[in-house]
Amino acid sequence: MIVKSILPFIAIGLFLLALVLRNKPIFKRLRKEPISIFEEVLFSAGSFGKVAGALGWLSFAVYCSSEVSYYLNEGEYFDASLALVFLAFSLLLAALMVNPKSMVSEKGDDDLFFTITKIALIASVFYFPFSEVSNLERLLIYLTTNITATVLNLFTVGVYTVYPSSIYTTNSSSQIEIVLACTAIQSMVLFTGLVFGLEAPIKRKFEAFFVSIPTIYLLNIVRNVFVSAAYFEQWFGSPLQSFYIAHDIIARIFVMISLIAIAYAVFVILPESLDVIEDFFRVLKAVGSKRR
């Protein structure tokens, strides 16, 4: 567990190092005799920044692999599939950064990889302290729990909280536990990284930020209130059945539609974000065609 908690911060340090050293070339090979595979990979990368970036993505991939294992053991197959996607993405970025000559089609693709690394760095800086440092995680959960309970009471669903994350109904001993995923921090940090990781005018960046981050948190409170009220008031049958329908079906559809709408608004304000996505898929297409 300790190693798993350290890995994200190693990745953050390596991402930062990659951006600082992105233009620092690796010294040229002086000897003519054959070199090791490691040295060949090192020299093919071209700069210390690419090597650091690749190592950062590999560190993140190891972390994601442990997350996949954890979610599978817990039976959380949806979360496991998301972690698997991030694992594949991390391995792909690591490969692209250290071997661009054989896998990438255009010179400007190097800028793309560093832009994605910058987005990942910003998102990681805002996410992993809350996910891996228990006191910060508890603080964020506590704030979300209290806001959710306050809104429930405003709508006459009588509840009270027990520090740091429990919400009880005053009508029975029924309880709902707020966890880190209930704070919407994953979605918020992804949009934060995307908005501030792009090269764009600062005014439009802040416009995109205020359109996305506060909206996501507000809608997440609405989601928490809906799921809690459905569970406590037994809107769809028994408490467990009500929770399942509200949380796993209705709320997930609501979240998906909301994120699509927010992403569209961000793309309109920051068309540079669409350029990054289009360039990345172009690189994937080029890699696929070269391997045929």
Describe the protein's architecture and organization.
The protein is mostly helical. 76% of the residues lie in helices and 4% in strands. It has a three-stranded antiparallel sheet with strand order 1-2-3, with helices on one face. The longest helix is centred in the last third of the chain and has 32 residues, at 202-233. It is elongated, with a radius of gyration of 22 Å. The two termini are 41 Å apart.
Short characterization:
By secondary structure, this protein is mainly alpha-helical.
Unreliable stretches:
none
Query: What proportion strand?
Result: under 5%
Average pLDDT taken over every residue = 87
How does the helix and strand content classify structurally? mainly alpha
Structural key phrases:
3 strands; 2 domains; 292 residues; 11 helices; mainly alpha; 76% helix; three-stranded antiparallel sheet
Task: Indicate the topology.
Layout: H1 2-20, H2 37-45, H3 48-74, H4 77-98, H5 100-103, H6 109-132, H7 134-154, E1 159-162, E2 166-169, E3 175-177, H8 185-197, H9 202-233, H10 239-269, H11 271-290
Antiparallel strand pairs: 1-2, 2-3
Helix pairs in contact: 1-3, 1-6, 3-4, 6-7, 6-8, 6-11, 7-9, 8-9, 9-10, 10-11
